[in-house]
């Protein structure tokens, strides 16, 4: 019989099944535990100090931003931003300037799975402004916010227009994801 199947004794079948069971058990035991899904944060608070250049006059301030995203796969964050900006009187700024911007903001995240995440955002709104002589104005502000985030830190070299004047507001800060 040239094509006959070999016969396996019942004792060999038992040994083979025990060997397969031992290999399968070893495979299962040596596998790393499955990672729990990372919690998905829909809300984020960011806070950080800023330095500001308005008409090349150096100022200081800080920002507070709240953003929201609807689902884990979303690359878009929407929210609001406020803060405090102050410039002393100088040859470029004839009066002391203090602004409290109130801005709507949108952010697009380029690489959500990376360790260092790149994004770009835009913020637009009004900035109630107190001038040195007691005058209050409601100025406009628009910012382009490219940025990088790593762990719980972020950096944004913000540029834009404040009352139709060029402004640079680099910011380094921390963020907290809220579930």
Polypeptide structure, described:
With 179 residues, this protein is mostly beta strands. The chain is built from one helix and nine strands, in the order αβββββββββ. It has one helix at 10-30, and strands spanning 43-54, 57-68, 76-87, 97-99, 102-109, 116-131, 136-150, 153-162, 165-178. Strands 1, 2, 3, 4, 5, 6, 7, 8 and 9 form a nine-stranded antiparallel beta sheet that branches. β6 and β7 form a beta hairpin. The longest helix is centred in the first third of the chain and has 21 residues, at 10-30. The N and C termini lie far apart (71 Å).
Give the overall shape, derived from the CA principal axes: elongated
Portion in helices: 10-25%
N-to-C series of helices and strands: HEEEEEEEEE
Largest sheet: 9 strands, antiparallel
Structural class given helices, strands, pairing? mainly beta
Radius of gyration: 29 Å
Low-confidence parts lasting 5 or more residues at pLDDT below 50? 27-32
Strand composition percent: over 45%
